[in-house]
Amino acid sequence: MGLNASLYLFSRTFLLIFFSTAITADNITQAFEKYSNFSTMNDLLIKTKLNIPISKYLTITLLAVSNEAISPIVNRSDVEVKNILMNHVILDYYDEIKFKGMKEKSIMLTTLYQTTGLGEEMNGFLNCTKSKGRVYFGSGVKGSPLVAEYVKALYDNPYNLSIVQISMPIVAPGLSLVIFPPPPPPAPPAPAPSPPDAAMAPGPGPDDDDNASDTAVPKHKPATETTEVDSPAPTPSADNEKIEAADKAGSSSSACKAGLSFVVVLLLLLFASFAGF
């Protein structure tokens, strides 16, 4: 009875390993066939023969990139493309539930490139960070930006194979030319403030009318209150001086003539009085 139980457990374990390996190898290519938008990445996996080493692992998570997003690396050398794609194969199982259930922190994920022994300065690892409920990916090299974002799950065979979509390819420093995400679009201009509605504007109250009559209309001082500045008398000109001198001379000569006439009359009166005697 004990021998039969041991044989049963051994056979179950063997079949599980066999079929898990087969499922992993097959679904890497078959899963992409269901999504025409990922045909380019599927072709690159076959072209670089990465589907062969991937099939040797029982637990794999593939970070898939759409045809449009993967275009920047398509024309690079076969070695560069292979190394870049190896960094998109995580040697662990992460599905949508696991990614969304992450705490707000950063973790390092081991990739297939790390198994080559060529990894330098953590470029065989991926930095997976959850921030404000969103999951981002970047190279494990110190100072590398988080360039890709988790989009959605494409395929999952629990604890064997998970394929999830990310927004753009991740290129680690030292493997090829790094790709940075495009800048965010400019913010739209702020809408112009709407003019106030005259019908809704409150009318002036009694106090406002009094204040308006006191402050809004400037008070004018009467003309009599205007301060006048005494201006200096004009300086007499040379012609005016001559006229004044002539007037003075004429008045003095008239006075002299009047005085002489008076003396003559007086002498005549005296002379007539003596002649009478």
From TrEMBL:
Chain spans, region Disordered: 186-248
Keyword Nuclease found: no
First-listed, main subcellular location of the protein, grouped into a coarse class: membrane
Signal peptide: 1-25
Entry membrane topology: Lipid-anchor; GPI-anchor
Record localization: Cell membrane
Bias (Pro residues): 186-196
Keyword Cell membrane belongs to the record: yes
Keyword tags: Cell membrane, Glycoprotein, GPI-anchor, Lipoprotein, Membrane, Proteoglycan, Signal
Any GO CC annotation of this UniProt entry: side of membrane
Function, as annotated: May be a cell surface adhesion protein.
Similarity comment text for this entry: Belongs to the fasciclin-like AGP family.
Protein's recorded name: Fasciclin-like arabinogalactan protein 5
Organism encoding this protein: Raphanus sativus (Radish)
Gene: LOC108821356
